[in-house]
């Protein structure tokens, strides 16, 4: 319960700790004909925004499944270096095509989740941005079906990011460790 509360607090302060920049959020092109069913299953995090206040461990995964009401169940896990244990958070995503809103706890605000590109079998690129008066706070995630994807897939995601959100540079990314020392959640989710 304590780990869940910590993840909840981190989710609440997400926009406080994200990457700030001047200007307003852009509206990048998103995935045409997004297929939530094909998006379901396990994804390994390849990279994320460096300033992200959550997902600060290693071996991060996101798992998606379709709920009976058509929403997506979101189950995120990470291995905490500090506690040497696997932490998790379960949420719900409501999607209108590739434009989603996700919420992890009843008391937390929902956060946007824009699926910019998934090829469904190898790599996915996700972007979120919040306007904050004269500034913006944005996040990026690169996800893969494999722990360590082929560089060509990572390069494809980076190319799409550069094309659609040119002000976001790879200097803002933190590359996630996924490897032999990882411990992953293996129970039912």
UniProtKB/TrEMBL annotation:
The keyword Disulfide bond applies. One of its GO terms (cellular component) is cytoplasm. Residues 35-176 form the Lipocalin/cytosolic fatty-acid binding domain. GO terms for biological process: lipid metabolic process; response to reactive oxygen species. InterPro entries: Calycin, Invtbrt_color, Lipocalin_ApoD, Lipocln_cytosolic_FA-bd_dom. It comes from the Eukaryota. One of its GO terms (molecular function) is pigment binding. Transmembrane segments: none annotated. It holds the Pfam family Lipocalin_2. Residues 1-18 form the signal peptide. Keywords: Disulfide bond, Signal. Belongs to the calycin superfamily. Lipocalin family. PANTHER family: APOLIPOPROTEIN D. This is Lipocalin/cytosolic fatty-acid binding domain-containing protein.
